[in-house]
Amino acid sequence: MKTYLTFDVGGSAIKYALIQEDLSILDKSSVPTPMDSLEHFVETIGEIYDRYASQISGIAISMPGIIDPQKGYSYTGGALRYIEKLETVKVLQARCPINITIGNDAKCAANAEIGFGNLKDIQDGAVVILGTGIGGCLIKNHQVHTGRHFSAGEFSFMKTNCLDPIGLDYAWSDRNGIKGLLKRVQEELETDKKMSGKEIFELANQGNEKVIKGIDQFSLEVATQIFNVHIIFDCEKVAIGGGISAQPLLIEFIQKNLDAIYDNLGFDVYKPEIVPCHFRNDANLIGTLYQHLETYK
Q: Which residues, if any, are the signal sequence (predicted)?
């Protein structure tokens, strides 16, 4: 059975794993993400490659930015400013002479669900990643839909207020990222206390009615935008990812609010099923492997 080295490049850490084709993870760790230079980034990947070179059949990388996965080209690199308008695969192969693929992080998370998770049985759908911002991906004909300019499914920038179409304060990423959840809960509790998503849901699961109300309002806005995505794209299922997707209460509230929207439509239209992403912290590591296997099958 072949083994692959997969990377999940984030703004603070690069996670990596040695994974077999049956998804068995043989080794897994992380290193800090170099923020200073491309040379430092390439050498960081190269040093990890050196340790596993004799064991692996390829390298698969999930990373931020607008990416052409077929050409291995990065138009942007998100927080990694040195990865911009770069033949990323060619640069990396000069240090690591092996088959290498790269893909956008949110699209890799979707690939994990298409290949091995809760979207294996669909043709058309979407993935919504609720994190610091909103990651997103559209799925068309059982494949990640990149779009003509490789930016399809960039849900973060969707506007939620026509009265402020220019400012980012009312972008979906602001309203329904973790910051948006905290804001709803703070408003209900009438406090400025900072809390993590984990703390918020601990309070909700203990029955705190104000926190539950804040999560419900947050979930209504998520459901509204999912409805809008569905009306445009006709999704069979929408998978919710990100750390807070592990909370059953969140999925329950999003589905409840989506049901309420449909109950008041006044016309008949298909309602997509809301499911949590099967893969959570390892989604990008597994999804980038699926993309790699599909590329070299």
A: none
Distances (CA, A) of 78 to 63, 83, 201, 270: 9, 8, 29, 35
Per the CB < 8 A criterion, the answer to whether 143 and 257 are in contact is no
CA distance 47 to 157: 36
The residue to which tokens 């490789």 are assigned: 150
Identify which of 179, 290, 289, 193 has the alpha carbon closest to the alpha carbon of residue 244. Answer: 179
Which domains are delineated in the chain?
3-108+282-295 (3.30.420.40), 122-276 (3.30.420.40)
pLDDT digits (tens, 9 = 90+) for 53-87: 999 999 999 999 999 999 999 999 988 999 999 99
> In this predicted model, what pLDDT tens digit does every residue of 198-216 receive, in sequence order?
899 999 999 999 999 999 9
The gap between the terminal CA atoms of the chain, to the nearest Å, is 14
The residue-averaged pLDDT of 228-245 equals 92
What tokens were used for 285?
């590591």
C-beta separation of 79 from 25 below 8 A: no
Q: Kindly state the average pLDDT of the residues 147-165.
A: 81
Q: Classify residue 150 as left (phi > 0), alpha (psi -120 to 50) or beta.
A: left
Taking each helix axis from N to C end, the angle separating 178-189 and 209-233, rounded to the nearest 10 degrees, works out to 140
In this structure, are residues 200 and 155 in contact, taking their beta carbons and an 8 Å threshold?
Answer: no
Question: Which positions ≥6 away from 117 have C-beta within 8 Å?
Answer: 239, 277, 278, 279
- Amino acid type, 67: I
CA distance 267 to 279: 35
pTM reported for the whole predicted model: 0.88
